[in-house]
Design goal:
Blueprint: E1 2-5, H1 7-14, H2 18-33, E2 43-44, E3 52-55, E4 60-68, E5 71-79, H3 80-83
Parallel strand pairs: 1-5
Antiparallel strand pairs: 2-3, 3-4, 4-5
Length: 87
């Protein structure tokens, strides 16, 4: 699996607390090994037909979509109350 991180994702990532960043890297590794890993809690994002999210913690989510069968694009990351706000 290949991951592309958008500029918006990178800017949002820099603003996250350090503990969330550390946990993101654990989830990112799981995603790279197996995008269907149940520990990611992947769900469809309402309002964006191709977008999905996976859980970093109970409160933080990463939004992404599959560009093709081997490439995922991470386009946002934030607290769940904020990440879905503009959907």
């Amino acid at each position: 699996m290949k991951i592309i991180k958008s500029d918006d994702f990178s800017r949002a990532f820099e603003k996250l607390p350090q503990n969330v960043k550390r946990l993101f890297f654990i989830q990112e590794t799981r995603f790279l090994i197996n995008p269907g890993d149940p520990r990611l809690h992947i769900k469809k994002v309402r309002g964006l037909p191709l977008a999905l999210s996976f859980r970093i913690t109970r409160h933080y989510r990463t939004l992404f979509y599959f560009q093709d069968q081997i490439t995922a694009v991470f386009f946002d990351i934030d607290h769940r109350k904020d990440v879905y706000r503009n959907m």
